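Thanks for the sequence, V.! I ran Enoyl reductase (ER) domain-containing protein right away. Repeating your input here for the record:
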Amino acid sequence: MKALVFDKSKLSWEDSRGFEKVEVLDPIINEQQNPSDANYIIIKVMYAGVCGSDRGIWNRTAFGDQILKSLEKEKNDVRIIGHEFFGEIITVGSNVGSLKIGDKVAFESHLICKKCFQCKNKQENVCSNQLILGISHNGGFAEFAKIPAYVAWKTDINKIRPEIAVLQEPFGNAVHAASKVNIKDKSVVIFGLGPIGLFLLLILKHLGAKIIIGVEVNEKAIKIAKDLGIDHIVKIKKSIDSKDYSYNKEVVKKIIEITGGLGEDVAFEMAGANNSLNNCIKSVRRGGDVVLFGLKNANFIIEDFTEIVMKGITLHSVAGRQVWKTWEMTKNILENNNIQDKLWNIVLEGGNETIVDFKDYNKDLFEKKMAEHTKILLKF
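Predicted structure:
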């Protein structure tokens, strides 16, 4: 089968970029040779989504250590990329349970040990021994994928169309973030309107936020946010200094003006930028909440740590999705309102130039589309 991979036998991590389309062995279930295969399924991939994490792997700015160390442990050279994917089951192991051939499934991307303290105390999303699909375990940017059945999430495509079903994993990140605090009748600011930030916007509206403000630099993302019904946009200039960590006085001033001098009830840091974090701390009201989702492999400087304490700010971190609580919430949100239509028509632009046929994959074209569109899908 064909797959998009990083191959350490042919490329060094530091001196390469992108995903190579190569021929790899079809996955098989052979319980006689590997008894653990009884717990696996094989799917024919229908769609796969490109995440910010995948962009980090493409640019070699994220997850290098995890990929290289996991390959060394497996004594393998090739990692199949991709953790957002959706497909049809074509093979099942003998111990799989209720799943059957023909079922359509998405996947929780975190593989858990089920044995550590966290797993035994309903904190599976922060399992001490977790592997991540497409990073420390082969993923779904391939024609077929072999995955442990316990992370498969059965989906009714009569209720959630396949192009949206593939988004359940990243959409779940936004659902988890929104569930950290009571949103109803609250003023909120989303710092960073990337794909997860835009998903969050839809969820916050659904949950009854009183006013939603977005802080963003990218014109395309700003247009999409406006089309999705955001109340206010605070546009910022992109810093040319990668070491810039100071809060933006104009951004904070504007947010405080919009919120009647109080500051927002809840700030969502979705950008993974140091100055964005400091903007959150400065703009959120006394006694407010800051929800942290954005990631960056770097040290952050908090400009005024005392302010977190003296303002009584509560910090919440978001790691993946709560299994399976977040998935149930995601299912209910997507099945029972018009959010699907907005995801398809606005975020995915009705599939216009945002869906790439896998057979036509070209490295240069793919990179161009990643630069031009907020969210793109691979169709198999």
